[in-house]
Amino acid sequence: MSGCLDNFQINTPEWLDLSEKRNAVSSIVAGVLFFTGWWIIIDINSYFSSEDFNNAYHLCGIFATISLFMINAVSNGQVRGETYNTGFLGQRAARVWLFIGFVLGFTPIIAATWILFAAYVIPNKRVIYPGIGLFLQNVLIFAGSLIFKFGRTEDYLN
After folding, report:
1. Domains of the chain: total
2. Does any domain span residue 3?
3. What's the domain range around 83?
4. Which pLDDT tens digit goes with each residue over 84-106?
5. SS3 of 6, please?
6. Would residue 110 count as lying in a domain?
């Protein structure tokens, strides 16, 4: 089925052409998302007591941050096998490392969702902002890691 919007074009202004600045823009957006996630949890920790927000919940954010580093430690060329074909496991090790990074990225989101419902929504606590903030922190960190991974281009020098 051919798209009905194939011939529809929007003239973008010159100042909005970000093709040359794609790496910078995606890095800034990813950094702002990462910062906002941690800022939310710092706000929650400073405002609420340890009865309302257990300090063990910080492990979700720590694992999400480790996932960010793991996901972005492997380049797309290494995963495709274009730039990394030597070593002990080569391309296979890069793919396994990336897979573990993604698993480690989804795990804190699932755990934060569990904490949100098990500790705040189901017991009918009057304040659920700590649970929502914990969930938002992990979603923002994971979104930042995805933007930082797939939003940049990799230009290799020969």
Report:
1. 1
2. no
3. 22-47+54-150
4. 666 667 788 888 999 999 999 99
5. coil
6. yes
